[in-house]
């Protein structure tokens, strides 16, 4: 047990996603491939201060917060879809050998909002606050997100919630993959989840990051991002475990890495040093050559600074003739802590189908972003290796590398 | 999980003192730092002071790695930056042997980092208007701000992660750091944990008090103590009280530390974590975490010479740990618990325990356990004392942290070789 | 709900800006360039704008960020805004 099997390979055997463009795997993928835009003027009554601002809601998902915690329900729904897709329900193995890791920006903090809002609104109107001197609510444990998924499945293995802001989904995949590689678990459900809330809208509004036009990744006229919600989960297994149970293998999670800009809380490093390092290290771990990479699912937030820095980092790593980039955020908006988990699902489906989805809302590519952008329509291409970029606030960057199952590698 | 990583630097602050030495000396006296604490931040009127263990001082005379513009930083960010510098200096990395920036990782465990900032955003947005929310407050209100500020201060350009798993968050951070060092993704990792008192938790602590408002009930606290002290392992648990702390450990590969001649606090022999089933009342998760960690470390129970328990006067935690520790070690291994002295320090609990257990291992003596009263007749008896206990030449120390998720984490430490 | 607002005063404004950008009050001379001389990045400039909006109870459009370049220019911008309102 103390011996670490460094060669334990990590494969993807199940996928689940709930997004503003689809609440099942195939609906989501169909929308993404056809560049369906899922962001609309916000109508949620619990975000009345932002009525009419663009946002991306998971529309079919049981209404507004209030009865329980929406982000947790989103996570459980995505995880349950993924484990069903993987044929793991019910879990018949050792409960201690299966675990959960989710990434998030704010997690269940939005559950505080109704009570805090009531408290402040009552104060503003000079009405009694029911004798309260503070909002009568306790911060829910953030790890409850992962624990709810674990309880749903009867898993008692490694369980945590991780945060690297908007790179949290990739970080959850990395945490889960390390747990498998180090022999702490056979199966991990990893993903990301975020819910729309007034608080998250306030945070991005205060940074003047929101656009009222549309989220246009890499476009000359990009003007900011649109906040969205969603959840995605991937079932990761050791290759041995997947083979032993005869599971369908979508892809191998062959590489992952994170790095910090160590530069600024909100602005990316001008040369994208964290982004570049994450890319290079994830590719090195995967043991693939640069030219094998056919597609990058870009972070592509549609903010002036991210897209130009990301394009520069990609060019620095791949040079001329690099892989085809697209950003899902044009279609989905920015689902924050869920974003790179949802994008990871798309990476795996791109590998499966040999299809690179187009970047929705991208019309006029910015010459300052000199990379091979896919827009207008999906591009068909046989794919062996796909990379998922994610770069969050605080200069927290994380990349993952997915390969076609059975692809020969020169390392591992 | 097996690791070959060692702790070469410690920086911390607790309610008993600003620094490793001050905290250690405070614990030896058996004193509790619980006192009446005013609600922080001025966000809400609050019900007035509540009993808690607050930092006496936010390491204000320590530089945040020479950073300026500290006003923009949350307390969490400031504390990890300052404790980070203490750990960095303690490890001697300021003199020599610092890794290249890209080989320095940062991992932080927390349950609530950024919560006060998030409440500030809601406060400003709801009372002043959404246009008047401070642009600084938003990013400081997210979970990963503190680790990002630590990275900026320390110029750590390697792997970065914030991990949360209740009171076991620090154990998760150690596990991640161990992976990073073992697989060569980082040479040195700053493993941090921070949680500060927030106005909601403090308000709730006040509300639970007999005669709410933080006024001690008649005959409760001895004279001179402003508030009651939690009573670990007592027959009728009165509950834990909230605390706050910051810890930063410098973790690096054993070989690297030897090569540079670093002073080693302890070797991290193994970390084991476990979740329990709902209704786990007799410590099944804690028992499993202890067994996993001992097995991974290759350490027999008889080699464990001292234990740091996370018992803090909350019934479920104390019960789970008494069963797990009694089962594994019987009644003869010296056990100490800091929860009555330092409060329930949330996501910092495990790393605090690790730092203190490492010190006890080196000194051959545990600190006192504050708040001991009668021992619950329904719990297995452990060797816990209101005074320091000798434990010379212990081959290993065990840290056990329990959380009511329910879940538990155990860390096995070995003395420097 | 607006906060109680403050009348405009150059020395008070100097102190306020020094506090926001966390520098010695003497460094905020009448003409010191925030960006070039006091190392104010765009996030900090935005923080100045929002803090002044709160303090003086006025709305400073984001397009005014360019005018928040020195104490004198900021004072002039505020005077103009407060006059107009």
TrEMBL record, chain A:
SMART domains named in the record: PKS_KS
GO molecular function: 3-oxoacyl-[acyl-carrier-protein] synthase activity
Biological process per Gene Ontology, one example term: fatty acid biosynthetic process
PROSITE patterns in UniProt: KS3_2
Domain Ketosynthase family 3 (KS3) positions: 7-404
CDD domains reported for this sequence: KAS_I_II (cd00834)
Keyword set, alphabetical order: Transferase
Keyword Transferase: yes
Sequence similarity: Belongs to the thiolase-like superfamily. Beta-ketoacyl-ACP synthases family.
Protein name per the record: 3-oxoacyl-[acyl-carrier-protein] synthase 2
Organism listed in the record: Streptomyces capoamus
Lineage, uppermost ranks: Bacteria, Bacillati, Actinomycetota, Actinomycetes, Kitasatosporales
UniProtKB/TrEMBL annotation, chain B:
Ranges for domain Ketosynthase family 3 (KS3): 2-415
Pfam families, sorted: ketoacyl-synt, Ketoacyl-synt_C
Renumbered residue ranges of the record's region Disordered: 207-239
Compositional bias of kind Low complexity: 217-231
GO MF annotations in UniProt: 3-oxoacyl-[acyl-carrier-protein] synthase activity
Transmembrane segments: none
Gene3D superfamilies: 3.40.47.10
Record keywords: Transferase
One GO biological process term: fatty acid biosynthetic process
Family: Belongs to the thiolase-like superfamily. Beta-ketoacyl-ACP synthases family.
Annotated protein name in UniProt: 3-oxoacyl-ACP synthase
Organism lineage: Bacteria, Bacillati, Actinomycetota, Actinomycetes, Kitasatosporales
From TrEMBL, chain C:
Cross-referenced Gene3D superfamilies: ACP-like
Boundaries of every Carrier domain copy: 4-82
Domain of life: Bacteria
Pfam family, one: PP-binding
Database matches in InterPro entries: ACP-like_sf, PP-bd_ACP
UniProt-recorded name of the protein: Carrier domain-containing protein
UniProt source species: Streptomyces capoamus
